[in-house]
Write a structure and sequence with these properties.
alpha/beta
């Protein structure tokens, strides 16, 4: 039956719509931190639908909220007052740290970043955008144009002029050998030099921790240091929190807070985890920026009642159960457990991350060259052992991505680490 579905998939869907595993699986249902496939196999889920199942599969509070809202009304569009949308916007505006914040809801992180670019370029009257090397911001025409990861940018055509800045990857590139302070200083000097050669940009867009790029990040404070330079030129800072937001890093509720010395970003985008599987994305910006558009706009599906009900229930559960604290505690234990296991595997170049956002970079032993075959082999071996993980990476990098639901227990973390250790040892 699975092979039949795979054949039907290939007959009607694009070739570039990637599937994991040599024998792809159909996930039919989930509960807590586990999912089951069509054949009845049970897996511990350490990828959460690409960091989207943030709290738990089939979380009763979210399921109940969705069911009750569906029984009233599912959708009406933004042309009508929408109580759940207003309530969720109020909570996100308060949590964002952005003063006089306004919130616009979309259906995805891609659309959120697209909206942020529209706001920034309109507000600044410039189509030049600064982006980070190794970044990923979505699959729309504008967002692939600012994505600094060749594997996820299928065209160089773009309505924007994009200039790429150093600093998103700490352990590779021309400044990798420097200590943290010198690394930040070199990246800031590079930014200053770059701005001397171009027309004034609208904004810098950056993921505090690069997601698709393999969970790489700069030293704390880099974007705060960038902010001083950006302020001098009136350039906005867009923090792409699609993968890092909602407490996943453990230490902070938002990834930008590790770089918050000079205040919050001017614009922040979010998506993925807030809906726990429902399609929610959005943009938060100061009122003067959000209100700079001089033409009408609506969102047909952004902010629809059923997704807002899910987001409210999910956010409430996250905060009331301190899942950020759980990510810090359980994630800290998990990363140390993985580092201990990886110390005996020559293919592992680095284990990095924060909270429940952990990357394992794989290379060919004795070299710094990416080993995509090893990453695929570990992915397959982990699946065979009952664990689902992700992968990523950019220029000459190959990484495994670990991002379980934030309610992960210590016992489940130990179980997952044991399966992962066995999968890593299988490639030696």
């Amino acid at each position: 039956m699975t092979n039949d579905l795979l054949g039907r998939h290939r007959a009607v869907l694009p070739d570039w719509l990637a599937l994991y595993y040599e024998e792809p699986i159909e996930i039919t249902h989930g509960e807590g931190r586990h999912v089951w496939d069509f054949e009845g196999n049970r897996y511990l889920d350490f990828f959460g639908g690409i960091l989207t199942t943030m709290t738990a599969h089939a979380l009763p509070e979210v399921t109940k909220a969705v069911s009750e809202q569906a029984g009233r009304i599912i959708h009406s569009s933004t042309l009508y007052l929408n109580r759940p949308m207003v309530e969720l916007a109020e909570r996100i505006a308060q949590l964002s740290g952005i003063p006089d914040a306004r919130v616009f809801f979309t259906t995805s992180g891609t659309e959120a970043n697209d909206t942020a670019l529209l706001l920034a370029t309109t507000y600044r009257r410039s189509n030049t955008v600064l982006a980070m090397r190794n970044s990923y911001h979505g699959r729309s025409f504008s967002s692939v144009g600012i994505t600094g990861n060749r594997g996820w940018s299928p065209t160089s055509l773009s309505p924007l002029q994009t200039l790429y800045v150093h600093g998103g990857v700490r352990s590779r590139g021309p400044y990798a050998q420097l200590d943290d302070a010198a690394f930040i200083a070199a990246c800031v000097e590079d930014l200053r030099d770059l701005l001397g050669h171009t027309r004034p940009p609208a904004a810098l867009i950056a993921e505090p921790i690069q997601g698709v790029g393999g969970f790489t990040s700069p030293p704390d404070g880099l974007y705060a240091a960038f902010r001083e330079v950006l302020h001098e030129h009136g350039i906005l800072w867009i923090a792409d929190e699609v993968q890092t937001g909602w407490g996943r890093t453990g230490e902070h509720f938002w990834g930008w807070q590790a770089h918050g010395r000079n205040g919050p970003p001017d614009i922040m985008t979010f998506a993925k985890g807030i809906g726990n599987g429902m399609s929610i994305g959005g943009v938060v910006a100061r009122a003067e920026i959000m209100n700079c558009l001089d033409a009408n706009s609506i969102s047909t599906f952004g902010g629809t009642q059923i997704t807002m009900a899910a987001g409210l229930a999910n956010l409430t559960y996250l905060l009331e159960h301190d899942l950020q604290g759980n990510a810090r505690r359980v994630g800290g234990m998990l990363i140390e457990r993985i580092r201990s296991a990886a110390a005996h595997v020559p293919h592992v170049r680095e284990v990095r991350g924060r909270g429940l956002m952990i990357g394992i970079e794989l290379t060919r032993p004795g070299t710094g060259e990416a080993d995509w075959q090893a990453a695929s082999a570990v992915l397959e071996a982990a699946r065979a052992g009952g664990l689902l993980i992700g992968k990523g990476g950019g220029h000459n990098t190959s990484a495994l991505r670990i991002a379980p639901p934030l309610s992960l227990t210590v016992a489940e973390a130990e179980e997952g680490a044991e399966i992962l250790e066995s999968a890593l040892r299988s490639i030696q």
